[in-house]
Amino acid sequence: MAETEALLKLREEFRMQNKSVFILGASGETGRVLLKEILEQGLFSKVTLIGQRKLTLDEEAYKNVNQEVVDFEKLDDYASAFQGHDVGFCCLGTARKKAGAEEFVRVDRDYVLKSAELAKSGGCKHFNLPPLRELIMEARVEELKFDRYSIFRPGFFSSLPESWASGHSVPVITVVRAMLNNAVRPSDAKKELLDNKAIHDLRRADDPLKP
């Protein structure tokens, strides 16, 4: 209970800072869940989606969400989309088997790195890299020297409900809630590597708050 009360206080303090956030890849499963949680928690004063197409967001809860449509092949032309955000979540990604090796490299390596470069230039302080990334990609983003760089490495990434998760599988919602719980916690660490246990520990803090 004490941990939950501390988390609620951290969230409130975070909201008072009126921070801006962007999500790359909000059309994918992780991005969709992340957007929903961000809006439900009301952590950011401005929420921007950056993607290759505009998403249909009809619900009232999404009315203040900004959308920036970019061409990932010409990202330098869209540098303004990355300007003025305090926190960034990169949820870009594709399956190697489904997309093929060439497309996998273009999305998971080239697009991610260029987006990170523009985010850094645009003033982003805290960059979050969710699962399904190559280690070499993590290292190259680290070279950009964000004020805070958080990497999430769960075990088997699962779309199953949290109640069905095993010791090694981590549902998307668990990772998303851990990401947000981590974001509101102050940290002096330049780089954070959050493994399976750390993700579950971060998520556990709001157990009394979420079904």
UniProtKB/TrEMBL annotation:
One of its GO terms (biological process) is import into nucleus. One of its GO terms (cellular component) is cytoplasm. GO terms for molecular function: catalytic activity. Pfam families: NAD_binding_10. It comes from the Eukaryota. Residues 25-127 form the NAD(P)-binding domain. Monomer. Forms homodimers during oxidative stress. Interacts (via N-terminus) with elongation factor EEF1A1 (via middle-region); the interaction is direct and competes with EEF1A1 binding to guanyl-nucleotide exchange factor EEF1B2, thereby inhibiting GDP for GTP exchange and reactivation of EEF1A1. Interacts with nuclear transport receptors XPO4, IPO5/RANBP5, IPO7, IPO9 and KPNB1 as well as GCN1L1/GCN1 and LRPPRC probably through their HEAT repeats. Binds NCOA5/CIA. PANTHER family: OXIDOREDUCTASE HTATIP2. This is Protein HTATIP2. It comes from Muntiacus reevesi.
